[in-house]
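Changelog-adjacent note: as of this version, every example in the card shows the full chain rather than a window. The one below runs 410 residues end to end.
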Amino acid sequence: MDAIRECCAGLDVHNKTVVAFILNGPLDHTPQKQISTFGTTTRELLRLQDWLIANQCQAVAMESTGVLWKPVWNVLESTCDIVLANARTIKNIPGRKTDMNDAFWIAKLHRCGLVQASVVLPEQLRDLRDWTRYRVKMVQAITAEKNRIHKLLQDGNIKLSSFITDVFGVSGRLLLEQLMDGEVLDEEQLRGLVKTKLKKKVPELMEALNGRVRRHHREMMRLHWDHLLYLEKQIEQVEARIESKLAPYAEELEWLDSIPGIERNTAAAIFAELGPEVHQRFETEEQLTSWAGVSPGNKESAGRKSKTKCLPGNKFLKRALTQAAWANEKSSNRIGQHFRRVRKRRGDKKACVATAHLLIKIIYSLMKNRSGYEEKDVPESTSKEKALAYYLKQIEKLGLTVQVTSPETS
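Full-length structure tokens:
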């Protein structure tokens, strides 16, 4: 392997220690080797920084070991040109694994330019990413609390979900409050609590509320309810913080929000994972789709292609894209047409990933051209038209011609 760097370092990062290996010397000669071990406290990482500066080493490579690489990155970012590598792509041959050998292998690969850099956004965008990812976790926690309350209602034979579409809507919440307080409602009281069309269902709701609710159910439900209200209040604060951090990128958010199926929160989650200037981090849209984990995998041997899954990719970005893809399931735009066209042949899940693949390509184009989404008029062909086109093509292969007329004109 040809060397392209005269001086570089490889870091093997652990929870308590960082093993640093420096290779220094002319490109056409065997480099000199220096190795040292440091701790992971701030003081020790600053000592690592001074050691690299003393050896005039700015090119540094390390693997992304969980979250352990982050403190090292934060300290060395200002003085070194750091490359963060996917551990899967720089894995050494097994058999003689030591910390020194791992650091030497990373340094050797980096000296030859064989370490592919991972995408690491600037600090302010990394902070935004933490907020958007935490919002997803809070939404999941809210859903979990709602499911626990549903379970208690069923255990107490309270059948509100049979007559109310959203038990946690305005009317449902008022009824749950009365239920947790142990109140016994008559029809007039119930009619004053429910809203809109539910007033027509008062007799059915009276029957649904006639269950076997014990003190145990009310106490457990109150705990879940208080936690649910707390989470809803917290998520409002998180969303306010996200909006404040997105203020400098209002134009980019408008571009993403203009795409069908992508609403404000989804646009914020996608932007937090990609950042601005996507075309500078990814030269082609194929690289971006592969990094996002929505690009078809390749598995070919001896001329035969086998089925394989997509690459893992960025799971947070993939979640947001697939959510937007499902939102276009029944839409009449070209994204919805693409979803339904693939679903006929491959099923729902593959259609969802294929539509997410289309969405990330649209996002790449919008961010590169700095413009909003414009719908193209793409007529959706029917199965009858496809069958006709297929048979006409087969007839042309036989050297024949045929004239097609509809029953109305014949």
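Structural remarks: The beta strands are 7-13, 17-24, 32-39, 59-63, 81-85, 300-301, 304-305.
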